[in-house]
Amino acid sequence: MWRKISSGNGEKVMKTSLLAAAIAMSLTAPVAAEDWNTVSRSPNSAFMVEVDGIVVNGEITTVPVATVSRRGEAGDYSHSVETYEFKCAASQWRTAGIVEYGEDGAEADRIPEEGGSWEPIRSNTLPDFLKQVACDGVRADPPTWPSIKAFVDGGRVLPTT
Fold first, then answer.
1. I need a labelling partner for 91 at 20 to 30 A (CA). Which of 37, 121, 123, 124 fits?
2. How far, in Å, CA of 102 to CA of 157, rounded?
3. Contact status, residue 39 vs residue 140, Cβ threshold 8 Å
């Protein structure tokens, strides 16, 4: 948004209203999409990858992985999201931190992990399944979920295998 302002000496100066423009843009900007895909499960937990959150930076691919209880009270959105890093070509992985979310779904704790050692990926392990998603483009069969809240509100139901 531009407006002309006359200075005291008659000069015309173009000035922007950056704050108003920033507010207008934030109100019209789309919300980042999420697409949570189940990659593994145990009797008590679902392990889900946010495939729209995969980031490639040089030789390192980063992927957020949620661990969500398969049992629990309706409205209990507690879960954790651990960041996994992969060197796809070298078939190596490590973790880079975890964020804990409370029952209300709000961030409760953040535990950074820096400089962890790179480990080789073994077949048929969680890191192997995550690498297939992060590096090879594999995606889960539907259903997938637009949020952890949607998974919980949908009854925490996973497709049968």
1. 37
2. 20
3. yes
